[in-house]
Amino acid sequence: MNPQTLIAKRVALELQPGMLVNLGIGIPTLVANHVPAGIDVFFQSENGLIGTGPVPEPGFAHPKLTDAGGQAVSALPGACTFDSAFSFGLMRGGHVDMTVLGGLQVDGGGHLSNWMIPGKLVPGMGGAMDLVTGAKQVVVAMQHTAKGKPKIVSKCSLPLTSLRPVDLIVTEMAVIAVVAGRLRLQEVAPGVSVDAVLAATEAALEVPEHVPSMPV
Amino acid sequence: MKRISLEDAVAAIPDGASLVVGGFVGVGTPERLCDELVRQGRRDLTLITNDTARPGMGVGKLISARCVRKVITSHIGLNPETQQQMHAGSLEVELVPQGSLVERIRCGGFGLGGVLTPTGLGTLAEEGKRRIEVDGKDYLLETALTADFALVHAMFADYSGNLRYLLTARNFNPIVAMAGSRVMATADHIVPVGVISPDDVMTPAAVVDHIVANH
Q1: pTM over 0.95
Q2: What domains are there in chain A, each with its CATH number?
Q3: What ipTM, to 2 d.p.?
Q4: Chain B nearest CA to A21, separation (Å)
């Protein structure tokens, strides 16, 4: 299984029936492909849609039915559309149960940086700051390292997305929970040792006596 | 003059004007108004809009043609030309969290001075903004935005100017339509009054100044 698929599959196990979920672009988008059987969730696109469905078959796309990246999507039965003020009211108002976002860095306190690399890449925060500030549960889905360097660091060197800590970090190596401002190793990926996770992580991790393998 | 030609609508927009424009990555953007602003060579515009789309698409055309001096927006990541002009110093970019941007525009259109939001606290988005405590919780004061012109695009406009948007092309449009001193709308279909039933009108004709003629 490639790292992205593994991460998406593990994140999908966090979904509960009836949740309203916002998926960011990149790995988070893949989560929609791995929703466990029997679990019905609502996916929100921040450009104004609840009930986002898969990419339509050729010839059935509509140019005015898109996701937040401007790509054609379908709408599931029961879908609804709304304006951007409403869409962000859903987030800040605590109506979005879970958001899954990509990350550049997460620090030892669970703070996320995911919107700019000063001097290099300035895409803008888009909806990320509102999502991390307002969603009930924030999950970061990202690769554990970038070019061999840890992305889970003691302190973020990149600009923060929010002061609000995330709740869960899912990588191709581990699941790490943020509990009371500290990181706790919750699971390791199949075939990955606790030592390997610690070696690829700069931030301090609490390691319980028994660390189970990801149930993927 | 409610019904107006594309050329006359854009001729009414002077160099240096401020524009608040609907659309999200080019979806629901008044594309023909952008084309005509480029054709008429407008300069030094201030643009308030969710994102700068992609080169050759939506408001991205205004960026490419260097019609814009300043843009207030939430995302420029899909348009490398915005980033190039920003780094070169020819384009001023003010980045605002998306939910705060739409609320600032809503405040402008709804007669409010600003809105208190927790979004952006302790981040670069707080720079230059006031922090206000209410009932023991901190918020940022995000102030209202208005513009000389609001440019929107609807699926349907009726002859009187009622607008109805389609699917995710609604996005910023109904909020934007409230925040311009003069409101110009384009539509995929211009239809007789009554085709849009009262409950389906998303922007009332009373706030729309111009319906731009289709070809």
Answers
A1: yes
A2: 3-199 (3.40.1080.10)
A3: 0.97
A4: 17
